Amino acid sequence: MEEQQLWTEWMEVLLARASVNGDSGEVPVAAVILDEQGRCIGHGRNRRERCQDPLGHAELVALSQAATIRGDWRFNPCTLLVTLEPCPMCAGALVQARMGTVIFGATDRKRGGLGGCINLADDPSAHHHMRVVGPLMQERAAEQLEIWFRQRRRRNR
């Protein structure tokens, strides 16, 4: 299967998972890690509210699961797809994990750690440089987040 087609199919799945997560009160973000054959070895959705865990970002949940499955913390041949550009915390974790490729949906101009606000992947201090692709399906991913935050603000008034 062509790389772009694989990414698009996975982003469709992630947007659906993120929507379900948004319905539960979490920010609708979902992530998946694929091995070099394109198989899912880890997935995650935001779970900060449910677990009261500041580290409960979708990317970190997926990384933890994939490390357990692989029995290794190095992800050089792997790809992470996520519906929102990783924040600096997650971008730093992806550099530390030596992720091969990161593909994100919506750009995060306020908190994006891979180009939206700052770019930790290209920082001179980074000991590992990963391929960053995004935005992918920007309009749909951004719209999903905008609608969720708009509804949340209305409920909180």
UniProtKB/TrEMBL annotation:
The GO terms describing molecular function are: tRNA-specific adenosine-34 deaminase activity; zinc ion binding
Q: What region holds the CMP/dCMP-type deaminase domain?
A: 5-117
Entry-linked CDD domains: nucleoside_deaminase (cd01285)
Q: Which PROSITE patterns match?
A: CYT_DCMP_DEAMINASES_1, CYT_DCMP_DEAMINASES_2
InterPro entries associated with the record: APOBEC/CMP_deaminase_Zn-bd, CMP_dCMP_dom, Cytidine_deaminase-like
State if Metal-binding is listed as a keyword: yes
Q: Which GO terms describe its biological process?
A: tRNA wobble adenosine to inosine editing
Q: Which domain of life is it from?
A: Bacteria
Per UniProt, the keywords (alphabetical) are: Metal-binding, Zinc
Q: What is the protein name given in its UniProt record?
A: Cytidine/deoxycytidylate deaminase family protein
One of this protein's Pfam families, by short name? dCMP_cyt_deam_1
